[in-house]
Amino acid sequence: MVNERRFRFGVTVGQIPNTKTWLEMARRAESSGFSTFLQPDTLFTPAPLPTLAAAAAATTTLRVGSWVLCDSLREPRMLAWEAATVDQLSDGRLELGLGVGRPDAEKDAARLGIPFGSPGQRVQRLEASVRTLKGLLSGGEPGFPAGVQRPHVPILIAASGPRLLAFAAREADIVVFGWPADTTMEAAQNGSRWSATPPRTDSTMWSWPPG
Q: Has residue 189 got a pLDDT over 90?
């Protein structure tokens, strides 16, 4: 039996010309019927979480999300604190997108003075980060700030390789397939053999050509 899932549309916005224009863009996305307002994570675009908080403050129903945070650049407990704050300020509209880093993320890490790690190390770190984030954002540690949403802020994981796809299938609320735009149906089907179980919620499964 195939479970029906809602199909949602999000819009990704990078540069912010000025505050007025940024807030107008968020309001326009909301009035146009978009579900989620997404901010990328690069050093040549504004930091995602502060800008998402501003977009949420200018809207009432529009969800806001990171597209996607490079896990290697962030300490998970600090990220949980900041994500919980945005979720509280937005009245429970945050979607927390995470990944092991886009192709140029290693350059960002070098400029920030942060170790990037090998692909295997980054996958292992992301797996540990997701476990930490879920525990903290669900209120699992007394006295630590938690988000509004339950069981926790929805977590989006961008994945392409078998190990990370399998992990995303088990743990993500939303999955981003990090496949090139010219991926064939056969290749997609082969890549989907990592699990017979789809993500655990009715959230959209996005597609995301990297680049």
A: no
DSSP classification of residue 201: S
Q: What is the DSSP annotation of 108-175?
A: HHHHHT-----HHHHHHHHHHHHHHHHHHHTT-STTS---SSSSSS-EEEEE-SHHHHHHHHHH-SEE
Model confidence pLDDT, tens digit, residues 52-71: 999 999 999 999 999 999 99
- The full DSSP string for 82-124 is HHHHHHHHTTS-EEEEEES--TTHHHHHHHHT-----HHHHHH
Cα(156)–Cα(112) distance, rounded to whole angstroms?
A: 24
pLDDT at 1: 54
Sign of the four-CA dihedral 94, 100, 106, 110 = positive
Q: For residue 76, what are the CA distances in angstroms to 16, 71, 138, 144, 160?
A: 26, 8, 14, 13, 22
Q: If residue 206 lies in a helix (H) or strand (E), which one and from where to where? A: strand 206-207
Whole-angstrom distance, CA of residue 177 vs CA of residue 210: 9
3-state secondary structure (DSSP) of residue 64: strand
**Nearest alpha carbon to residue 44 among 105, 99, 133:** 105
Q: Please, are residues 194 and 86 in contact by the beta-carbon 8 Å criterion?
A: no
Residue 106's closest CA among 116, 96, 97, 98?
116
Which amino acid does the sequence have at 132?
T
CATH hierarchy code of domain 10-207 = 3.20.20.30
In this prediction the pTM is 0.88
